[in-house]
Structures are given as C-alpha cells and as structure tokens.
Amino acid sequence: MNIIRAGRAVVVRDRRMGTHLWFVLTDPDPLTGLVVMVALVTERPHTEKTVRLDAGDHSFVRHASNVDFGTARFAPSSKLSERLGRGVATLDADMSAGLLEQVCRGLLASSHTINEIAAYCRENFRT
Questions:
Q1: How far apart are CA 104 and CA 126, in angstroms?
Q2: CA angle 27, 38, 28 (to 5 degrees)
Q3: Is 34 within 8 Å of 77 (Cβ atoms)?
Q4: pTM metric for this prediction
Q5: DSSP result, 54-123
Q6: How high is the pLDDT of residue 117?
Q7: How far apart are CA 90 and CA 70, in angstroms?
Q8: 23 has a pLDDT exceeding 80
Q9: N or C: which end of the chain has fewer CB within 10 A?
Q10: 67-94, pLDDT tens digit by residue?
Q11: How far apart are CA 103 and CA 121, in angstroms?
C-alpha cells in the first residue's frame, strides 16, 4: 500500500524551491500513480491569497502562509515514497478534512492553477 494519498503533508527539500511543505490533494491515479500536490509558502505581498493559513491551521504553519496554486503539479507517488525513504522528504501531520476541503476548493477557484490540473482535480477530488 502506498503511503502517499490525499491529505498527506510532505516536507520536501528541493534545490530550486528550498524546503517547503507540500499538500497532497489526490490519491494516486490507479493507472499512472500520479498525485496532485501544491506548495505552502510564506505570505509575502506578491503571494496568491486564495487560501491563507495562520499558525494553528496546520502543525507546520508558524506564521501567515499561502497555498501557492501556481506550484500545483502532478507528481509520481512512487518518487515521493522513494524520497521519503532517502530522507530527502519527511511526512508532517496529515491535513484535517476541513483543511483538505479548503485547499481543494481553492485550487479549483484559483486563476493560478493550470487548466490540466484543474480539469483532473474536478474529476478526482474525493471531497
């Protein structure tokens, strides 16, 4: 059984983006194994404000943060599992059902979400 599923929160270290919390929004696709994930970023004047989180909304959040729907992407669940095994990524506390629903609604509402991701998610969100 794959440990990567909708509602997981994964801290990923990446050369390009640095270390960020990523929310997994879909279960692995049964044919491709892909999931949709999106990054949480520190709130800045230029960051998207569709979904804003404060300390207490998730255990990782220590200050005002925004879900950056421009980062939404398909990711192979097998690669995420492999990164967890190598210590390049770590699991954080799962999202609450309410937070998962809020972020999923935000992804569909955001003008920053690419069309391919939004179309896939409309068909595959379980919330």
A1: 9
A2: 15
A3: yes
A4: 0.91
A5: -TTSSTT--S-EEEEEEEEEEEEHHHHHHHHHHTSEEEEPPPPHHHHHHHHHHHHH-TTS-HHHHHHHHH
A6: 97
A7: 22
A8: yes
A9: N
A10: 999 999 999 999 999 999 998 899 999 9
A11: 12
